[in-house]
Design a protein that fits this description.
By secondary structure, the protein is of the alpha/beta class. It has one domain: HUPs (Rossmann fold). About 40% of the residues lie in helices and about 20% in strands. The chain has 7 helices and 5 strands; from the N terminus they run E-H-E-H-E-H-E-H-E-H-H-H. The protein has a 5-stranded parallel beta sheet with strand order 3-2-1-4-5, with helices on both faces. It is globular, with a radius of gyration of 16 Å. It binds 4'-phosphopantetheine. The site of 4'-phosphopantetheine (PNS) has 9 residues, from strand 1 and helix 4.
Length: about 170
Amino acid sequence: MKVAVYPGSFDPITLGHMDVILRSAAVFEKVVVAVLKNVDKKGLFSIEERVEMIQKLVQKYDNIEVVSFEGLLVDFMKSIDAHVIVKGLRVGLDFDYELQMAHMNRKLSEERVETVLMMASTEYSYISSSSVREILHFKGDIREFVPEEIVDDIYQKVGIVLEGMCNERKL
Ligand code: PNS
């Protein structure tokens, strides 16, 4: 079975991530969304919250699984016998970083792991989790950037009640 692993921090998942997940699920037999437990970096959302939000979004797809992992990605890939990493490419700036990571992961895995880059759909190419976190910090509107099924969950988790949107959104 051709399994693709889509790794990331997903703090939080965005429309851009979802686009890559769903398009990958149409290309590979199975997609494993792998959420990094980064011991050095405390995120806005806990690992459990991130996994839970992604699970809510992909539960209707039989060939998409969500897990968390720690340590090296290639070690996690070996543990599930997967050989393909999928990464999204938004703008040219992403390319140098992804190129380096792809070579690094190939070398670390003794050439058993390949990286496939999927071009982000143009309408999502400017979206990043860090921008979403910044908007949340200033209590702004994230509805254009994250899947609508988890907008309320996100606002609740960060304890935001958007006054201007209260009536309209019943938050
Ligand atoms: O969403 P992100 O934060 O850009 O994702 C980065 C991620 C999780 C793909 C990357 O940091 C990663 O694979 N981390 C695990 C450690 C590892 O294997 N690093 C590569 C060798 S240096």
